[in-house]
Protein: Strictosidine synthase conserved region domain-containing protein
Amino acid sequence: MGLKGKLFKAALVLMLIAVLPGLPPKTVFPFKPISITPPRPLTGVLAPNQLLNGAERLHEGGLLQPEGVLVRGNATYVSVYGGKILELGEQGSVRTVVKLGPECVGTYSERVCGRPLGIDFDTKGNNLIVADPYLGIWQVHIKTGEKKLLVSKTNAIIEDGTKPTEPSSSSRSRLTTRQPNIPNGVAVARNGDFYWSDSASDFIFEDAVQAVLCNPSGRLLHYSRAEGKSRVLIDEVYGANGVVLSPDESFVLVGELGGQLIRRYYLKGPLAGTHDIFIDGLPGAVDNLNGDVHGFWVGLVIAADENNPSFVAMLAPFPNLRRLLVRLFVLVEAPFKLWYDATGSDFALWATHHIGHLGGLAGLFPNRGTVLRLDWEGNIVLALHNDDTSSHIISQGVLQGKDHLLLGSPVNTWLGRVKLTPETVAALKGTVKPVPEAAKKPPTPREEL
Structure:
């Protein structure tokens, strides 16, 4: 058989894998074209700079994947690989606040031992609220480490608030919805309730590549501490990630990693119960959000611009191609999953972890690292970039003191820290007007996901 014949047969097999019905995986929503607003040009307020260059590396080699970051006084709290929350004190001290899961067998066993992502301070007690994509959402006492599971991965009570309630006796079954799959971001309200994100429903966190190739199945949810149950506020969020509440708690925001935008859900006022796009066309994949009375920080974990297009955005309009890629990943991973389930083999666990893990592609990410500062009206006030890869895969930016910014990361083994310029500090204090955003434009019409 000649080369042309072999290529034809290979193309035929791939086409059948892509279009044949009934092949795994079974996704929550069907594959269909997705529209993603192109990133805004890096001009005006978004123009490249070196404000994040030369990041200091705190606890280098001792913090594995410090994704979530919180600061209170002289203490910094970080979520790290292995189901741990660490407290970083003065003079370089490190204290383990809690270990959520069992001990790890390696850097590939996160599905077993945990990998907490989003964290926030509780408003009802000296606790942290911690979201782990494998172990659920926990309340953890900061001093004693006492932990309480609030949202389970297997038996959470979740109502689909996106569908109208019916008074009939059968309404309960229509209101219950799917179990959480990737708890990610969390923001605690003054009354102790919290808002949280579930990134996707089709794959677990270590299969993030497959998850972002499927049609959006992420959600923004509200958890009632009094009732012990959650309610879906927005469904079909494309890689639901960071969550932050406005200062007056009139709305809550959730970032979209895949859509490169931020969505807003109204909690009060005439628009209460509805949602819209707060800002889109951001120059990167949105990760964690954290705010104060004046505005909030946005970590862009994977840069995207005219010279560095997002692979998610490039594939979004082509459902058959995305379905083919997902099915190929599933086929490659399936024997290793069966092997691990049958024997508990470390090698099989290693293989299933790395096939589809987004962290394995970190070497392909653009060198630009970016943290944005937005006000509560959706204006980009500041854009801080680096181009020296000192901390370019940034999950979160958190102010420490008056003039330092901590930089979390899902891949680094240190916590980044940069000293802010006097001009940046002044802008944060509101003593100077925001830089005009020359590139700002009305939102591009976009298919609701």
Remarks:
- Residues 192 and 248 are 15 Å apart (CA to CA).
- Residues 6-14, 168-173, 433-449 have pLDDT under 50 and may be disordered.
